[in-house]
Design a protein that fits this description.
The complex is a heterodimer.
Chain A lengths: L3 E3 L3 E4 L5 E3 L1 E3 L5 E8 L3 E8 L6 E2 L6 E7 L2 E6 L8 E8 L8 E2 L3 E5 L1
Parallel strand pairs in A: 2-12
Antiparallel strand pairs in A: 1-4, 3-9, 5-6, 5-10, 6-7, 8-9, 10-11, 10-12
Chain B lengths: L4 E3 L2 E5 L4 E6 L6 E7 L5 E8 L4 E4 L2 E6 L4 E6 L8 E8 L11 E6 L1
Parallel strand pairs in B: 2-10
Antiparallel strand pairs in B: 1-3, 3-8, 4-5, 4-9, 6-7, 7-8, 9-10
The chains are: A mainly beta, B mainly beta.
């Protein structure tokens, strides 16, 4: 089975800190995605990548950046954490968007204080 | 919007009953996917139905798709307490992104 691993289950950071959320998948998937999930707003797409070194903005990229230096790893970076970035962050990967579902990690619950 | 919209927002049933959740969307699709999320965890892919399919089964799950009405439904038969979760539909348009709705919260009471 494909496994998507997010480095932290819970994270507490201070306002203004630079935060790195790491995501690693072990099945050579081309496509990787970062979502955030908030009550009443559902899942919202932050960034995605269809190949190494490639990145595309999702619906809410402001305040975030990403890095994909290796195929298996997709990092989400909060340049200067703010309290409104307190959320559940979900990483997903996928082999072929037209034919297969996404495999999600367990999520990172980030609290910015 | 490509986003799926689930209905109802919340559903409470007794164990053994069937649960039906509906999804509507607005654009043409390549496929439509259903996911489950247990509280505080990541989403789990349940089933993918292609635009040229009308019905698909997986265990106790039955998904239908009506592209003329731009709607889909997920039926869980003989529900169990372990089915308690949020369920999301996600329509996919070729070349696009998978956009999730806010989900249906299903509660199955023992």
């Amino acid at each position: 089975d494909v496994k998507v691993t997010q480095s932290s289950r819970y994270l507490v950071k201070r306002t203004g800190e630079k935060v790195f959320l790491e995501c690693v998948q072990d099945m050579d998937h081309e496509n990787m995605f970062w979502y955030r999930q908030d009550p009443g707003l559902g899942l919202r797409l932050i960034y995605f990548s269809y190949d190494v070194k490639m990145k595309e903005k999702g619906d809410i990229p402001e305040g975030y950046s990403v890095s994909r230096e290796k195929k298996e790893r997709f990092s989400l970076i909060l340049e200067s954490a703010s309290t409104n970035q307190t959320s559940m962050y979900l990483c997903a990967s996928n082999r072929d968007r037209a034919s297969y579902g996404y495999t999600f990690g367990s999520g990172t619950r980030l609290t910015v204080v | 919007s490509q986003q799926g919209e689930e209905d109802p927002q919340a559903l409470s049933i007794q164990e053994g009953e069937n649960a039906t959740m509906n999804c509507s969307y607005k654009t043409s699709i390549n496929n439509l996917q259903w996911y489950r999320q247990n509280s505080g965890r990541g989403l789990v892919h349940l089933i993918l139905i292609r635009s040229n399919e009308r019905e698909k089964h997986s265990g106790r799950l039955r998904v239908t798709l009506d592209t003329s009405k731009k709607s889909s439904s997920l039926l869980i038969t003989a529900s169990r307490a372990a089915d308690t979760a949020s369920y999301f539909c996600a329509p996919y348009n070729q070349g696009g992104k998978l956009i999730f709705g806010q989900g249906t919260e299903l509660s199955v009471k023992p």
